[in-house]
Amino acid sequence: MQLSLDHLACRRAGRLVFTGLTVSLGAGEALLVTGRNGAGKSTLLAAIAGLLRPAEGRITLAGTGERSRPECVHHLGHRDGLKPSLTAAENLAFAAAVLGSAGIAPGQALAKLGIGAAAGLPVGYLSAGQRRRVMLGRLLVARRPVWLLDEPTTALDREGRAVLFDLLDAHLAEGGLLVAATHAPLPIPGARELSLSPPPPAPPSPDDLP
Amino acid sequence: MTAFLALVRRDLALASRVGGSGGLGLVFFLMVVTLIPFALGPDLNLLSRIGPAILWIAALLSTLVGLDRLFQADEEDGSLDLLRFSAAPLEVLVLAKVVAHWLVTGLPLALAAPLFGLLLAMSPEAMATSSLALLVGTPALTCLGAVGAALTATLRRGGLILAVLVLPLTVPVLIFGVAAADPSREAARPALLALVGLTLGAAVIGTFAAAAALRPAE
User: Fold this and answer.
1) pLDDT, tens only, B44-74
2) What does the radius of gyration of chain B's CA atoms come to, in whole angstroms?
């Protein structure tokens, strides 16, 4: 499996956040996207996930068989997609049914993430870190080869980060791909780093306005 | 199919739990139906003649209540992105959401219509036909409303825009619905069949249009 970005440029609110991005990522490889706030890290992940159309350039994911790109990715963004009135286990069971390609059972996934005791609690009662762990459980209940993680360590304590790093290691060892936007360093051996810097400010033209 | 059933089950569970809107549409329906006799005054003949029309207007309004949250709630918390990553086509998932919404709002309306017909001095035959017409007609309202809900999913105060977008589209359903509900008319039966046709058409057009509106721009 091969993810290639070819001279990619993305536009947010009429402004080009990055241009001319060319990266290629093979099986078992990780790419850490860094850059200051507003540099376009989340935009890049959304573009790879297929939620956003690039302004220029191409994104290709080769070797997926009949599956389309959105069917091959896990995208964990800022919005966690958890329903507060459903329990943690119900949320994960729903995600597994919708995403398909079943992995381990929701209960097992929650136990692995260290919140097995909260499986029967409505997510609305959980803390930010616990919600984050439930969200990470989605990576386990549905197996997908490309993981796009936006600030995956947010709200996690030290133990939670250790669990997350184990998950990432196992995923890469199985030949998965990882693209993570992060400010905190992730201890992944051999991970490449992509630093996004904003393009030089162009004089505003009328077409650039939204 | 797994995804379809999972989504229907989840939306029904959400509607039945704290903060869900299950039953609210029915209460609103009752409110509208009871208010109109007060406004018209004590004329039982008039009331029983326009009873089916009142039921349909009330059904239309109570379908709109809560429809603005159909996709907006999922858009806000990010579950809509989850649906976009599903292996199942977005049209199927939209249909699942529409079915779940109709089971919570439309079906109770149709079942409660005979009871509310009593408040409008309707004859037993009129109650039966009204209930049947609502049963086959309200899915069309939900399907058409889903298009408006999808278009306004990202708007903060989309409820009013939704009503403005959807209400003109519901005129044919209203015409045939009221005609089918009135047993004294000769055309009641053809009108009922036309209503079935409208529902089937709206189910197809509504799901495809709503899915197109929700699909990421690619």
Assistant:
1) 888 888 888 999 999 999 888 888 889 999 9
2) 18
As a dihedral over the C-alpha atoms of residue A54, residue B147, residue B83, residue B157, rounded to 10 degrees, the angle is 80
In a domain, A206, yes or no: no
Rounded distance, CA B74 to CA B158, Å? 14
Query: Taking a contact as any Cβ pair under 8 Å apart, which residues of chain A between 43 and 62 contact chain B?
Result: 49-53
Residues A111 and A89: their CA atoms lie apart, in Å, by 11
**Domain-by-domain residue ranges, chain B?**
2-13+20-214
Is A207 within a domain? no
Q: Which residues from B are below 8 Å from A when comparing CB atoms?
A: 2-3, 5-7, 10, 13-14, 17-20, 76-79, 81-88, 93, 216-218
Please state, for a pLDDT cut of 90, what percent of chain A lies above it.
53
Return the closest-CA partner of residue B116 out of B102, B101, B130. B130
pLDDT tens, position by position, B2-52 = 899 999 999 999 988 866 676 788 888 899 988 988 998 888 888 888 888
Q: What confidence score (pLDDT) does residue B24 get?
A: 83
Domain that holds residue A156: 2-197
Instruction: Give the burial string for B173-187 (b: 16+ CB within 10 Å, else e).
Output: bbebbbbbbbbeeee
List the structure tokens of A132: 């984050």
Number of domains making up chain A: 1
**Does a structural domain hold residue A43?**
yes
d(CA B196, CA B46): 28
Q: Which residues contact A11 (CB under 8 A, 6 or more apart)?
A: A17, A55
Order of strands across the sheet with A146-150? A73-76, A146-150, A177-181, A30-34, A192-195
Best of A11, A66, A69, A83 to substitute, by most chain B Cβ atoms within 10 angstroms, is A83
Q: Is residue A81 part of a domain?
A: yes
Distance from C-alpha of B68 to C-alpha of A94, rounded to nearest angstrom: 23
> Tell me, what CATH number does A68's domain have?
3.40.50.300
Q: List helix spans (H) across A174-208.
A: none
Closest CA to A107 of A125, A91, A123, A122: A91
